[in-house]
Amino acid sequence: MYTKFIDKIIRLPEEVKFIINNLESKGFEAFAVGGCIRDILIEKTPTDWDITTNAKPDEVKFLFEELGYKVIETGIKHGTVAILVNKNQYEVTTYRIEKEYLDNRHPSEVFFTNVLKEDLLRRDFTINAMAYNENKGLIDYFQGLTHLEERRIKTVGDAEDRFREDSLRILRAIRFSTTLKYSIDKDVEEGIRHTCKLLLNISKERVRDEFIKVLLSDTPSYGIKKLCDLGAMEFIIPQLSKISVLSSEGISKEAAYKSLEILDQSEASLTLRLSVLIYIILYFSSYDPNLGKYVEYNTNVADLMVKHILQTLKFDNVTISRVALLLGNCHIDFKMDSIVSVKSFISRVGIDNFEEMVSLIFTTLKIGTWNRVSYDEMIELENHYYEIIEGKEPIYIKDLLVNGNDLISLGIPKGKILGDILKYLLTQVMENKYNNTKEILIELAKKYCNFIGFPL
């Protein structure tokens, strides 16, 4: 597939050729290496270009500073400097050998070498262990090109050794398999099963970032099932790993796995897919074999699970809050003919979140019988929403044509009473948008104060 046309397929950017050519002009070797070569061979645009060389970091730095380019010591201890060319940053790393990994992530020592093959031996997968320059062509010691053609994920050397060195490679294997739609070799899968517990030694932020890439792929269900089947999910989202062993009456692993495929059909939004995933966990966790049915959806339980899962994985507070909001409001308990209830729902969810909210609710209707709102009612809700937005009807307190200062000037004190009055006025405006004038709202405020025994 690729072998006859390598030079036609691989086109290095001018800046990369410039760096390589300058290193070669001084007697050094230099190649574009790793993921950029993999991506260009499968006709994907590389997001960045890495260069490897037998020049030492100080030699690279001296050479390009002499040429007038800015060189940044991004990781000089490990042999890496970054050269700024045409406002783009290119990392150049010296060929290196890595000694024992003490924390399943970082090598205890790094030694520089003059041999390219020794550098490529330390890399994770064969498809990421190829190097290229225009003079020597493609350097492929480990059949990476063959494995690209065969659509296989295979480690450079023994899988367990690679995963014990850097356990994040476990997640990278499954991520590449998911995003590239490649199979994982059996020995690699066995290596994952035997070493996945080492994920506990990896920072939660790193684990989260790899999981996000799986979740936002075209087929997240494949990656999630693979994480469950190979035992890795237990060390990422243990609540989710349990669905891979369900077998009680009325519920099965197959049913739970089938529900994961709904993720593939949903928009690739992080908050939406996290919400769908946690809803699936909540749904299948709620089955009571003694009762033979699913217990009622509980928003408090949903909120606790969202916070526990997402805080453990070090998600930011904005994401956590938005997922909690979506799962806290996805079961509708009002009739669509109550315009105040519809507007209150839109106000509570927020215009910015409404479309994701609707997407989540439609998705919940595919998962099971938990959500009692109907498809037709959701269409009606959407229609109400567009009418309200197009009509610019008030749904927030800030939309009222009076504010707290206007009410305070009437003699209403700050605090709970003021807040209650503003909420009351909003309800009156939601019922009748023509109530939203300053004169009418002040009159309504006075009547409310009289009603609660606080005459003005």
TrEMBL record:
InterPro entries: Bact_CCA-adding_enz_type3_sf (IPR050264), CCA-adding_enz_C (IPR032810), NT_sf (IPR043519), PolA_pol_head_dom (IPR002646), PolyA_RNA-bd (IPR032828). Residues 182-241 form the tRNA nucleotidyltransferase/poly(A) polymerase RNA and SrmB- binding domain. Keywords: Magnesium, Metal-binding, Nucleotide-binding, Nucleotidyltransferase, RNA-binding, Transferase, tRNA processing. Residues 31-153 form the Poly A polymerase head domain. Residues 298-444 form the CCA-adding enzyme C-terminal domain. GO terms for molecular function: CCA tRNA nucleotidyltransferase activity; metal ion binding; nucleotide binding; tRNA binding. The keyword Nucleotidyltransferase applies. Its cofactor is Mg(2+). This is CCA-adding enzyme. It comes from bioreactor metagenome. The lineage of its organism: unclassified sequences, metagenomes, ecological metagenomes. The gene is cca_34.
